[in-house]
Amino acid sequence: MALRILINGAKGRMGHAVADAAQDMGVVVGAAVDVGDDLKAALASCDAVVDFSSHAATRAMLEAAVALKKPVVLGTTGHAADEKKQLLALAAKI
């Protein structure tokens, strides 16, 4: 069975690049979400998250991933040092 990923930030340049790379590698894009989409519903049907969204959306995505015990690859940048420390503590739970 192929890995099913959720791309968070799917409409952006990197989201498109991840989708293209996934196809080349035989990874299934189980869901592709962006601002305004139902992240939690989409996450339930996937094995992992690849996040290239906005730094403002990172915490909510990580909280949803922790709740569903889904691993995350985080490519989003722009977090302040204190925010990054908090996010790393949250991410350590998964």
Main sheet record: 4 strands, parallel
How would you describe the shape? globular
What is the CA-based Rg, rounded?
13 Å
**What is the topology, as strand order, of the major beta sheet?**
2-1-3-4
Task: Summarize the helix and strand pattern as letters.
Answer: EHEHEHEH
Span between termini: 22 Å
> What portion of residues is helical?
40-55%
Oligomer: single chain
Mean pLDDT: 92
What's this entry about, in short?
The protein has 94 residues and is an alpha/beta fold.
Keywords:
94 residues, alpha/beta, four-stranded parallel beta sheet, 4 helices, 19% strand, globular
Provide a descriptive summary of the structure in words.
This protein has 94 residues and is of the alpha/beta class. The protein contains four helices and four strands, in the order βαβαβαβα. Strands 2-1-3-4 form a four-stranded parallel β-sheet, sandwiched between helices. The longest helix is centred in the N-terminal third of the chain and has 13 residues, at 13-25. The mean pLDDT is 92.
Write the layout of secondary structure elements.
Blueprint: E1 4-8, H1 13-25, E2 28-33, H2 39-44, E3 48-51, H3 58-68, E4 72-74, H4 81-91
